[in-house]
Amino acid sequence: MDILRRREDNCFMRPGQGRALWAALLVGMAASASPMVLFAQQAEQPLGARLYAGQQTLAGYIAGHETPLPETASRCVNCHVLAGSPRPASGSQKTVAFGPLLSAEGLKGLVPRRGGPPSRYDLHAFCELLKTGVDPAKVIIQRTMPRYKLDEPQCEALWMYITQPTP
Ligand code: HEC
User: Fold this and answer.
1) pLDDT over 70 at 99, yes or no
2) Atom 43, ligand 1: which residue's CA is nearest?
3) Is 86 exposed, middle or buried (0-12, 13-18, 19+ CB in 10 A)?
4) 80 Cα: distance to centroid of ligand 1 (angstroms)
């Protein structure tokens, strides 16, 4: 009898404790559910939009450097304005390293860029520019614009997002 009682005492779960454990587990599940909800909301934005705005990380590098830029410094939205989106307010940080306005016409249209012969972007040329900094006329862009390590789906998503028809 004595031994039995001792066993009960040592037992991990005493009577009544089971319910408390379940409650704890449920609370834990509820708490961990909220980040999932947040994730689902973010996922509603297309990949290209998330990459452009930096909600989805892209590894950006200053040309010639091995260490990636801080995530916040690699965001396209820091330096570019998309055609059709509101202009940054005067005095906004964008004036510091302001890149060109990005639009479907501007990228796909045959225009001279950086003193080179007229050229236009397609998906391939766009990905090449992001990875290597070489534009379609084989001119190297300024170092202000980071170089990126990105895969084909990421690059394609960015291209689709940036060149989508403006409303
Ligand atoms: C730190 C600022 C900065 C960031 C971040 C940045 N860019 Fe740029 N980008 C520039 C500048 C400056 C130029 C112009 C370079 C030149 O003319 O030599 C440029 C040029 C470009 C061009 C070439 C446009 C043309 O007509 O030839 C494209 C396309 C482009 N950026 C896309 C992107 C995308 C996509 C991202 C994010 C993945 C991005 N940029 C992030 C500054 C930036």
Assistant:
1) yes
2) 145
3) exposed
4) 7
* End-to-end CA, the chain: 82
Q: What is the pLDDT of residues 106-158, one digit of tens each?
A: 999 999 999 999 999 999 999 999 999 999 999 999 999 999 999 999 999 99
Token output for 103: 């639009």
d(CA 103, CA 123): 14
* Nearby residues of 35 by Cβ (< 8 Å), 6 or more positions away: none
The residue whose CB lies within 8 Å of the most ligand 1 atoms, and thus the one to mutate among 78, 110, 131, 141, is 141
Q: Which positions ≥6 away from 89 have C-beta within 8 Å?
A: none
84, two tokens: 């059709």
